[in-house]
Write a structure and sequence with these properties.
Blueprint: E1 13-16, H1 21-26, E2 28-38, E3 43-46, E4 52-59, E5 61-66, E6 69-74, E7 78-82, E8 87-91, E9 95-104, H2 107-118, E10 121-122, H3 127-142, H4 149-164, H5 171-186, H6 194-201, H7 205-216, H8 220-238, H9 243-249, H10 255-265, H11 270-277
Antiparallel strand pairs: 1-2, 2-9, 3-8, 4-7, 4-9, 5-6, 5-8, 7-10
Helix pairs in contact: 3-4, 5-6, 8-11, 9-10
Length: 278
């Protein structure tokens, strides 16, 4: 379909999608996608538009104003906007970009997390992959392609995965976090402190705690607790060890501590879990 937006050249294409009730309830789903060639007359100003937007700049510059930030996205950049918030963007002469509007499931919450990590202007090692994914999607529909709800959702899931991966210059820090995770798993029966983990990561305790939760969704100590719980579940299901023995094996000095953990996290005792798992 040809776009009729002011400033969008005739060779541009766009496609609109109306999701089914099932897609709205269960999946990620596209609402628009397109490949635009623009003059300086193209702009968009909205106070509210329900879907999210990911745009990849193939040539030229896109000026963006969003959430108090003003920036120019250039060739190779990715722009991520939650269009439910006020936003404005305008093409500079010669702009070419591909884009997708999408919604569904917990997409706004996921994109909110990505925006918190990177902001609306994303420059990382996956940008070209993001651009190719959107470009191929537009080509797919330009060639009259048909796909089911699950496949469409998987495209968007892959897009979100690419957007959420960290930049190359942060990989050293990521490796430090992974090193502490491996240490926790291999020392699950030992006493593990926050200071010890921060030392392993070679970071301050404050920054380590912040980075660890950003990467895993858990504080370092909560991750230790969950790892102990996971190991205890395996031992309950796969061995004949007593609850007391398992408690000691995963770092607790009494079975009461393990029993309280199971009741708090799972809602039943270790012995009840053993009956369910076998």
């Amino acid at each position: 379909m040809k776009s009729v937006d002011t400033g969008v050249l005739a060779r541009s294409v766009c496609f609109s999608f109306t999701p089914s009730d099932t897609a709205r309830q269960l999946y990620f789903y596209p609402t628009w996608c397109g490949h635009y060639f623009c003059t300086g007359r193209y702009f968009m100003r909205r106070e509210y538009f329900p879907p999210l937007l990911v745009a990849y700049i193939r040539e030229g510059t896109l000026h963006v104003e969003y959430e108090g930030e003003t920036f120019d996205a250039k060739k190779g950049d990715v722009v991520l906007l939650d269009c439910a918030r006020p936003h404005y963007y305008q093409a500079m002469e010669g702009l070419e970009f591909v884009y997708i509007h999408f919604d569904g499931s917990n997409s706004h919450e996921i994109c909110g997390h990505i925006l918190k990590l990177f902001g609306p202007l994303i420059r990382n090692q996956n940008n070209a992959l993001v651009g190719n994914l959107i470009y191929n999607m537009v080509k797919f529909y330009e060639q009259d392609g048909v796909e089911n709800m699950f496949d469409s959702s998987m495209r968007i899931y892959k897009l979100l995965q690419l957007l959420s991966e960290r930049e190359l210059h942060n990989q050293k820090e990521d490796t430090s976090i992974e090193k502490t995770i491996r240490y926790i798993r291999s020392h699950v029966g030992d006493k593990i402190t926050l200071e010890e983990l921060a030392d392993i990561a070679n970071l301050s305790t404050y920054y380590f705690s912040h980075r660890f939760k950003e990467e895993t969704g858990l504080s370092p100590i909560d991750y230790v607790i969950n790892t102990r719980l996971d190991q205890a579940k395996i031992l309950l299901a796969r061995t004949s060890m007593t609850v007391e023995e398992i408690a000691y094996e995963v770092g607790y000095q009494s079975s009461n501590s393990l029993i309280n953990l199971f009741n708090q996290k799972l809602g039943f005792s270790p012995r009840e879990y053993r009956k369910l798992a076998k």
